[in-house]
């Protein structure tokens, strides 16, 4: 069987997804949409639309990939599902938590697959760290500390909708910090206590350019995160402290190549001879397999009716609920926007 595929939103991410889909023998992209297309756009004989709604209504798709601005994500997802297509949607899954409710309701009576693009779960360093934690090699997690930041709100050829709360739903936390929050959830489970300071004092948009977050889960694991759009040296760093050592994820292989090489550092605690300089091992990764691996997992779920293990609707709801709690935990931000 050949699965007919459409991609709505054909910017940097949409094109990258297309490249990954081409490697799947039984998935064939037949249609694209992008706001910059006009009636003269023809790409290798594909059906092209300027409006994603026209693509969804006119094409009899088996699978829909969504890489649209935040304000369209939930609407396009629900339209795609109602048309009978399996759906893969980039993060964030919606502008707000409430927008996910009708999607969840629809899926309760449907066998269609929906997966969200929490891409960082599929990086080699992350998958290795997850394996180590699950195998209990270093004991239980004690705490986590993360920094994820870039130097501005808009990069590459992106448009300024990201700086408008009415269009984006949020700033750097929702756009980029969501990945780090998702990893923290992935490693240790949900957080029920949240403290935050949310700022937009540098770029002066109506979305945040910095978020400082402190969280604790029901098992007492504490996590802190700085999500920033004033990180002049682009940074991805996640330190996970466990009972018998530490895992440090540093750098990330990305399209911009600005986050440095991707590494996983294993630090072996030595309480009997502790001089603060324990044995350590560094694993370096030189290939970004995340995009292909993510598509492999999704296409397998579509073919074989497998459960979506990473990027499910329940995980999307959990992370959007956490983000909303973070925004509301800052009393000034809560008063301003809620």
Summarize this, please?
This protein has 338 residues and is α/β, with parallel strands linked by helices. It is built from 10 helices and 14 strands.
Features:
alpha/beta, six-stranded parallel sheet, 338 residues
Description:
It is built from ten helices and 14 strands. By secondary structure, it is of the alpha/beta class. The strands form two sheets. Strands 8-9-10-7-11-12-13-14 form an eight-stranded mixed sheet, with helices on one face. Helix 7 packs across helix 9 (313-329). The chain is globular and about 70 Å long. The termini are far apart.
Indicate the mean pLDDT. Answer: 95
Q: How many strand units?
A: 14
The end-to-end distance, rounded to whole angstroms, is 48 Å
Q: Which value, in Å, is the CA radius of gyration?
A: 20 Å
Sheet having the most strands? 8 strands, mixed
Write the H/E string, N to C. Answer: EHEEHEHEHEHEHHEEEEEEEHHH
Strand order of the largest sheet: 8-9-10-7-11-12-13-14
What is the number of helices?
10
Sum up the overall morphology in one term. globular
Classify the secondary structure makeup into a structural class: alpha/beta
Residue fraction in strands: 25-35%
Helix content: 25-40%
Uncertain segments? none
